[in-house]
Amino acid sequence: MKDKAVLNESDIPFFSVDWGRTKVLVGKGSPAASDRVMVKITEYLPGYIHEKHVHPVQEEIIFVLSGRGLTETAGGKRDIKPGDVVFIPAGLEHATYNPYKETLRAVIIKSPPDND
């Protein structure tokens, strides 16, 4: 039996979302199932937007690995680039944009995890 505590992200397939593609590394639907945290890798494709939305009870962290994008909250839009960490408290309306020509790749951490 393979150790569920050590995974290689390349072994986990992406699935399509409206703004690009994503894969669940830890959480529901992953070999490393957790009911307390979700860790994903998400790729925001050039020209795509993850529209404004709210997670009423989830905190979210976006850690940018590569590419560039924009994050938006009530405070306005800010550029994000590799090494940037975006913290989104529960209940804060937010959006992520990729108006650039390269894919924005990020680690997404949510707690508690998505229910779907």
Question: Could you outline the blueprint of secondary structure elements for this entry?
Answer:
Elements: E1 15-17, E2 20-26, E3 38-44, E4 49-53, E5 59-66, E6 69-73, E7 76-80, E8 85-88, E9 94-97, E10 104-111
Antiparallel strand pairs: 1-2, 2-3, 3-10, 4-9, 5-8, 5-10, 6-7, 6-9
What name does the CATH topology carry?
Jelly Rolls
Strand order of the largest sheet: 1-2-3-10-5-8
- Element order, helices and strands? EEEEEEEEEE
CATH architectural arrangement: Sandwich
CATH level-1 class:
Mainly Beta
Structural class: mainly beta
List low-pLDDT spans: none
Backbone CA Rg: 14 Å
Give the CATH H-level superfamily.
Jelly Rolls
Tally of helical segments = 0
Give the helix level as a range of percent: under 10%
What's the end-to-end separation, in Å?
27 Å
Largest sheet: 6 strands, antiparallel
What count of domains describes the coordinates?
1
Overall mean confidence score, pLDDT: 93
Shape: globular
Please provide the count of β strands: 10
**Strand content bin:** over 45%
Nutshell version of this structure?
The chain has 116 residues and is mostly beta strands.
Key words describing this protein structure:
about 120 residues; about 0% helix; about 50% strand; 6-stranded antiparallel sheet; mainly beta; 4-stranded antiparallel sheet; Jelly Rolls
